[in-house]
Design goal:
The protein is mostly helical. The chain is built from 4 helices and no strands.
Length: about 100
């Protein structure tokens, strides 16, 4: 097993998941129920499944498309999401007329 890749994957996902909507949903669910174990298991399985699907789709895309294209598509996708977030934040800061 590639321990460096394992630790890098763990660190990247751990840091990127801090404070996102799924964590806020887990906080809300955990605060509204007494069964924290069920909330933990449900959110952990959901994150595992989403990560598994991402790895499978990424591996499949890398076999069909050149790596350079996959990276370019990912970069364009992140850029589009960033621009949309910036525009929506700007629109929400404008006073209503």
């Amino acid at each position: 097993m590639n321990w460096h890749l394992l630790s890098l994957s763990f660190a990247m996902v751990f840091v990127s998941e801090l404070g996102d909507k799924s964590q806020l949903a887990a906080i809300a669910l955990g605060g509204s129920t007494r069964s924290m174990r069920a909330v933990f298991l449900g959110t952990a399985v959901a994150l595992l499944l989403a990560s598994f699907l991402g790895v499978i789709l990424g591996g499949s895309a890398a076999q069909v498309l050149p790596t350079r294209w996959v990276k370019a598509i990912a970069a364009i996708g992140f850029a589009v999401m960033g621009v949309r977030l910036l525009l929506s934040a700007r629109e929400s800061d404008l006073p209503e007329t």
